[in-house]
Design brief:
Blueprint: H1 2-10, H2 15-31, E1 45-47, E2 50-52, E3 56-58, H3 69-73, E4 79-85, E5 98-101, E6 106-109, H4 118-126, E7 133-138, H5 149-160, E8 166-170, H6 185-206, E9 212-216, H7 222-234, E10 239-242, E11 263-266, H8 270-284, E12 290-293, H9 299-308, E13 312-315, H10 317-322, H11 325-336
Parallel strand pairs: 3-4, 3-13, 4-7, 7-8, 8-9, 9-10, 10-12, 12-13
Antiparallel strand pairs: 1-2, 5-6, 6-11
Length: 344
């Protein structure tokens, strides 16, 4: 109810400024102990060897530097994902770089992995009291040549390993030049081979196994999805996240700001992302768990993702349009359903 009243005011402010204001306000309320802990243990499940109290998570991008984990954890999420973080700090693309399309409940962003660097993210995690499941999403710096991208992912993976419940390899953002080339068969095979070898070494060094998930784009042709699924199986990856934002404008090209460059998220992405989840599920046959994300704007959207084959789901743009109450709405809907426990 409160967010319904506040949203018109927030939507009069630049989207990036409003984003920062909202997170900072939540942080202050949490420090004043005015945020209630609303997390619900509901249909807990084991996925990637990790125990999730409920299957509804926060997608990467909202808390890039892991600065607000304690406050976000009180919204009812079963897990959080921070990042995308790069080895070195970088400012991202020039502003303005976020554009709302309220008529379609959509957002276009071209942030460009703006973040304070992996070392600062680790310091922020150390200062946090959050002890739930934490994913850390890693990427490459914008000025690292694509043929050297593996080095950045290995650097990020090594540094966050000790602090992550799982690590997401982001190869699907449309806002870093040539990044999506890493989804091509040969490049992906090389990247995942190197990371799995590193995972084995780090598991021995730290005495714990940290799963790796790969985040893919929604703009892939069926043959490309099939190729990616084959590579994921070959390297025994721990999870796949479907999907990132889309470069398509098919359903919004008639609306203001739709011409802006960047990735489109929100309601126009819903069906496209769900189709990728469904295709992956049919190809992977439960051998690799799927985290469904993209256009989850309601409890029905969440159920559709899970019926398509997602073991877990993540939210982002739905929170912008419907507020934190969306988390509780979806968790309640999941609780009300007969148990369809998906463990993988």
């Amino acid at each position: 109810m409160l967010y319904t009243l506040l949203r018109p005011l927030l939507f009069k402010i630049d989207p990036e400024v409003a984003h920062g204001m909202t997170l900072n306000a939540m942080e202050r309320l949490n420090k004043m102990r005015l945020l209630r802990n609303t997390q619900v243990v509901c249909q807990p499940r084991t996925v990637m060897g990790l125990n999730f109290p409920n299957p509804v998570g926060l997608a990467a991008g909202l808390d890039k530097n892991a600065e607000h984990l304690d406050a976000l954890a009180r919204l009812g999420f079963g897990f959080l994902e921070a990042g995308t973080v790069t080895p070195r700090p970088q400012p991202g693309n020039p502003a303005p770089r976020i554009f709302r399309i309220p008529e379609a409940e959509a957002i276009i962003n071209r942030m460009g992995f703006n973040n304070q660097g992996v070392d600062q993210l680790i310091e922020n995690i150390k200062c946090s009291d959050y002890r739930g499941v934490l994913g850390i999403n890693i990427g490459k710096n914008f000025d690292t040549p694509i043929d050297k991208a593996v080095d950045d992912y290995q650097t990020g993976f090594q540094k966050v390993y000790r602090y992550a419940s799982y690590v997401t390899v982001n190869i699907s953002s449309p806002n870093t030049q040539n990044l999506r080339q890493l989804q091509d068969a040969e490049a992906l095979d090389h990247l995942l081979g190197q990371l799995k070898s590193q995972q084995d070494r780090l598991a021995q060094e730290h005495g714990k196994y940290v799963p790796i998930a790969v985040k893919i784009a929604p703009d892939l042709e069926p043959a490309q999805v099939e190729s990616i699924a084959s590579t994921l199986l070959k390297h025994r990856m721990d999870g796949v996240i479907a999907t990132n934002t889309t470069i398509s404008r098919n359903s919004v090209d008639h609306l203001p700001v739709a011409h802006q460059q960047g990735g489109l998220s929100g309601a126009p992405l819903t069906q496209r992302a769900t189709r990728i989840v469904y295709q992956l599920h049919s190809l992977l046959q439960n051998a690799i768990p799927i985290i469904g994300v993209g256009g989850i704007m309601s409890a029905n959207d969440a159920q559709d993702k899970m019926e398509a084959g997602a073991n877990l789901i993540q939210l982002y743009t739905g929170l912008i349009y419907h507020g934190p109450g969306l988390v509780k709405e979806i968790v309640r809907a999941v609780c009300a359903q007969p148990s369809q426990l998906r463990s993988a």
